[in-house]
Design a protein that fits this description.
9 helices; six-stranded mixed sheet; 4 domains; Molybdopterin biosynthesis moeA protein, domain 3; Molybdenum Cofactor Biosythetic Enzyme, Chain A; Molybdopterin biosynthesis moea protein, domain 2; alpha+beta
């Protein structure tokens, strides 16, 4: 039990907004930048912005298979022109001879003098096949079916901003402007320490009162999904000395230590005491449901995030508090995932004193809650595809917009 001298005892619970602001203010983006080839940049965070050194495409080119021509010539000839030449992608065409059309394939540079491309389906062979065409769909608009130089990317444009976690399409854009390497931030190293004598490795027989340890695989997988290098995943028994030793070792080779359990006020909750012995606690207890007993501080100067031991609370608090903290350390922008307003598919007539994160699924354009929101129902997180935020003290009316956070966005 906390003593009357416990500095955390008399403090009121922080709001979610206050707690998250403190966490974000307490850490800085990792130092250290490296240049990696595109094939190894997926999931890394861009350290510098990539600026296009050239236009994409570099020259006007054809969006269709067809014929490049000059509209004035086409109109003067009544829609029929002789064909003089052919060009394909990757070739440098000759200038278009006056009064002629040129066969052109998709992606080929438009010859000088041409101001439109007519698709092949709008053309038929004229003059018995003697090298002439007749355009069957008139008039043809100026610039028709021509992709202009710089239409995709203009030279000098920032195509990849610093702070973006790189996706497959980002690497494609980087390649399209000629980049072979990208400058990225160092990967965040995270150590996970799980507490609880009642936890048993899956695959073993359970004794009365024991539970399979779901936190270790769940938290480690979530951190990997967030682009972290998980340096260790350890379970420690409920003992102060063992907990202190485990946290000291975890902080020795990590940029962030994440624990689950041991941050409440029970006799076997030793994480708080161990953190204080090795560093300091800066945040403890937040007005959030699920997950009130959450802590933040430092272990030997390394940021520490203490999650509740309950698996549902552990996951939700990692998403609500850990994701912005990790994004900040990774140098990602923005640090806080954006919410999407979605109509509620439920009503809430009784207000909650704490900000609540409801496990929901998108159904018919509304967020529908899992039927059992108990913090011991881990299945609710597998059924759901995101979280809906209900502000502290708020009622919910059916159809009212709620902030929705998709798991795919939170972990992306």
């Amino acid at each position: 039990m906390p003593t009357p001298t416990d500095p955390q005892r008399a403090k009121p619970m922080l709001s979610v907004t206050e707690a998250r602001a403190r966490l974000l203010a307490a850490v800085e983006p990792l130092a250290g930048v490296e240049a990696v080839p595109l094939e190894r940049a997926l999931g890394r965070v861009a350290a510098t912005s990539l600026v296009a050194p050239r236009d994409v495409p570099l020259a006007d080119n054809s969006a269709m298979d067809g014929f490049a021509l000059r509209l004035a010539d086409l109109e003067a000839a009544g829609g029929t022109l002789p064909v003089a030449g052919r060009t394909a992608a990757g070739q440098r065409p000759q200038a278009l001879a006056p009064g002629t059309a040129m066969r052109i394939l998709t992606g080929a540079v438009v010859p000088e003098g041409a101001d439109a491309v007519v698709p092949i389906e709008d053309v038929e062979v004229a003059d018995g096949g003697a090298g002439a065409i007749r355009v069957t769909r008139m008039p043809v608009a100026p610039g028709a079916n021509i992709r202009r130089a710089g239409e995709d990317v203009a030279r000098g444009t920032v195509v990849l901003p610093a702070g973006r976690r790189l996706r497959p399409q980002d690497l494609g854009v980087a390649a399209s402007v000629g980049a072979t390497h990208l400058e990225v931030r160092r990967t965040l190293r995270v150590a996970v320490v799980v507490t609880g004598d009642e936890l048993v490795e899956p695959g073993r027989e359970l004794a009365p009162g024991q539970l399979y340890d779901s936190n270790r695989p769940m938290l480690a997988a979530a951190l990997v999904a967030l682009g972290c290098d998980v340096t260790r995943v350890e379970r420690v028994r409920d003992d102060l000395a063992a907990t202190t030793d485990a946290l000291r070792a975890a902080a020795a080779d990590a940029d962030l230590v994440v624990t689950s359990g041991g941050v409440s006020v029970g006799e076997e909750d030793h994480v708080k005491s161990a953190v204080r012995a090795l560093g300091a606690i800066e945040v403890w207890k937040v007005a959030v449901q699920p997950g009130k007993p959450i802590g933040f501080g430092r272990i030997a100067g390394v940021p520490w995030l203490g999650l509740p031991g309950n698996p549902v609370s552990s996951l939700v608090t990692l998403l609500v508090f850990g994701v912005p903290l990790i994004r900040r350390q990774q140098g990602r922008e923005p640090a806080e995932p954006a919410a999407v307003p979605v109509p509620a598919g439920f009503a809430r007539a009784t207000p909650n004193r704490r900000e609540e994160y409801v496990r929901v699924a998108l159904q018919g354009g509304r967020v529908v809650p899992y039927h059992h929101q108990g913090s011991g129902v881990l299945q609710s997180t597998a059924w759901a595809d995101g979280l809906a935020r209900v502000p502290a003290g708020a009622l919910v009316q059916e159809g009212e917009p709620l902030d929705y956070f998709a798991f795919a966005e939170l972990l992306g």
